[in-house]
Amino acid sequence: MLLLYITRLIDVFPLFLKGLWMTIAVSFLSLITATILGFLAGICRSSRNMPLRRAIGVYVNLIRGTPFLVQVFTIFFILPEFGIHLEPFPAAIIAMTIMGSAFICEIVAAGIEAVPKGQREAAISTGLSRNQQIRYVILPQAMRTILPPLVGQYVLLVKDSSIVSVIGVMDLTRVGWLTVQRIPEGMLVFGLVGIMYFAVCYPLIRLATRLEKRMSVEEYSL
Amino acid sequence: MLEYFNFRVILQYLDQYLIGLLATGWMSLVSICLALILGTIACVMRLSKNRLISNTSAVYIESIRSTPLLTQLYFFYFGLPSIGININEVQTGVLALSLNSGAYVAEIIRAGILSIPRGHVEAGIATGLSFIQRLRYIILPQAIGVVLPPLLGSAIVLVKDSSLLSLISVLELTRAGQILTSERFMPAEGFFTTAAFYLVIYSGLKVFSDWTQKKLIYREAH
Amino acid sequence: MIKIRNVNKWFGDLHVLKDISLNVALGEVLVVCGPSGSGKSTLIRCINRLEQIQEGELIVDNLNVHDRNINLTQLRAEIGFVFQQFNLYPHMTALGNVTLAPIKVRKMKKIEAEKLGRETMQKVGLGDKVDSYPAQLSGGQQQRVAIARGLCMRPKIMLFDEPTSALDPEMINEVLEVMVNLAKEGMTMIVVTHEMGFAREVAKRILFMDEGQIVETAPPNEFFTNPKHKRTQLFLSKILSH
């Protein structure tokens, strides 16, 4: 019986590859949009404008305080009430962007705060505007602190992408879920799903660890 | 928008939400405790000089970290019955949550232990303290300070992750929201209420986390 | 050039600048000294508005510094500031450091700015270090680059906040030399420092501050030989003894 299931699994393997591709597509697109939004939010989060900081703080806490699954359901089911009817794929991207940007916002803000105060004062003293200060002096230095946790966040995005399977996106998890209805060998099917996620996530995790080590080494050499 | 918000419906389903809240609460609690035990064991194994023991633990930790929780959950939910293990959804859910969180706990504890400067331990050895004494007066006090905040963070993540259990038909907070939504076609009332409950839990845990951190800083100053 | 009238500043409840009034003329070199906590750093940091004042007037080159509507960019372009901790941008070369503001604030073309940058670096004695990164330079060299960074904006005033206090003793002179040359060329300078040799050589006046107030001001020879106030005498005895 097991052998039969294994052969069936091999037959549907191309579907798994398609699912993996969808996972990568959703993750990659969201990664880009979340990074852009997250950096903008992070820069605003560390501005001197208190109302702005608080407003972004509220948004960040809302996202960090609720499960991603609930956010996905909210976006997918509530937006139609406002007349916006979305296909699963765009809805998924939106949900992942909103979630990812909240976390990236905090990472960026922390990186900016970590730049020594004297750097900001030096930039101010030569007449640079706030935008110029951030762009030429602060952000380049903040990137060292930002990069490792940023890559870590990308890994989390890939893993959380599995949740969008519940609104019908045909990603790797959904393919697994559909397959297990026909091939009732849960461990086989989801073992395969797991291995495929592992293939994507593990290298990213290693990259993040390596970046972290490199950053702490550089600190010493300075 | 709030004028159309149907509070009466929410009150009608309040009992479901409270059951869900309770379920979320105690399942998270049990999972956290199990995760702590599992994580400590895995950590000790990981730090062992025995290659086999260390690698076994490493395989466990890296597999969990590189695969989504949903995949792990489905792995057990669909996989265990197919090898003859029949446990109910709640038990499956707690199993998946504990195993998942345990891997992260292991890494947190490992980082904590490794962060204690070797010099402190050597000072203890040099002044004649026994292993137990070194553990009690030098290693543990410092380790707890380093380890407690991320552990609390891990607990918060676990509470949010418990929302995935709704997908295997466990009656918890998210499922309560799903029930309201599907029975009354009111996604806003359904999911905003769910979100509100999670935010309350999150704020509570965060306040607790900040409070413990303040107490820890006070202790270190001594 | 600089008019300071009845300036008061508080950090919370702490009254750090008490009714400060002072004039600095064009081309004058003013040295400010005093015990730590006297408010001397705070005072010069108010001049380019790194710190805000709560009361009083601060006028630089006819610009009211603490006016809400003032063009801060314009103000800061005319004031060069040298920090105790140098604060060079570690991710840029020395040339990058000194040319950033001229390019972005004065809108100079890169080629022009680099030419100016090299000349200024030459002037502070580091013509061959234009492509070095701050991490590759000694403390004294970094501080000289910091001075060059201020000078490249062609400011009307240069402010120095304890420029040699963070340097190892053998590097202090190379920085002081640059500052002495600057003074001799007629730059308006306010220098917070303990280097009395420097003060004796180029300062027109020395200001002694204590507990947020100006206690005494006098030309160098008078200041050192005939301090009028007890606190000044006490301070001088402490710093001149080593």
Relevant terms:
heterotrimer, A: 222 residues, MetI-like fold, 0% strand, elongated, C: six-stranded mixed sheet
In CATH terms, what is the fold-level topology of chain A? MetI-like fold
Oligomer status: heterotrimer
Give the distance, in angstroms, between the N- and C-terminal Cα atoms of chain C: 35 Å
SS summary, helix count of chain A: 8
The general outline of chain A is elongated
What CATH architecture of chain A do you see?
Orthogonal Bundle
Helix content of chain C: 25-40%
The whole-angstrom Rg of chain C is 18 Å
Strand order of the largest sheet of chain C: 6-7-8-3-9-10
Specify Rg of chain A, calculated over alpha carbons.
21 Å
Q: Write the CATH homologous superfamily of chain A.
A: MetI-like
Counting DSSP E segments of at least 2 residues, the number of strands of chain C comes to 10
Taking the sheet with the most strands of chain A, its summary is: none
- What does the average pLDDT of chain A come to? 90
Q: Percent of residues of chain C in beta strands?
A: 15-25%
Number of domains of chain A: 1
Secondary structure elements and pairings:
The complex is a heterotrimer of chains A (222), B (222) and C (242).
Chain A: H1 2-45, H2 50-64, H3 68-78, H4 88-114, H5 117-125, H6 130-160, H7 172-182, H8 186-221
Helix pairs in contact in A: 1-4, 1-6, 1-7, 1-8, 2-4, 3-4, 4-6, 5-6, 6-8, 7-8
Chain B: H1 7-46, H2 51-65, H3 69-82, H4 89-114, H5 118-126, H6 131-161, H7 173-184, H8 187-221
Helix pairs in contact in B: 1-2, 1-4, 1-7, 1-8, 2-4, 3-4, 4-6, 5-6, 6-8, 7-8
Chain C: E1 2-11, E2 14-24, E3 29-33, H1 40-47, E4 55-60, E5 63-64, H2 72-77, E6 79-82, H3 94-104, H4 110-123, H5 139-151, E7 157-161, H6 169-184, E8 188-192, H7 196-202, E9 205-210, E10 213-218, H8 220-225, H9 230-240
Parallel strand pairs in C: 3-8, 3-9, 6-7, 7-8
Antiparallel strand pairs in C: 1-2, 1-4, 4-5, 9-10
Helix pairs in contact in C: 3-4, 3-5, 4-5, 5-6
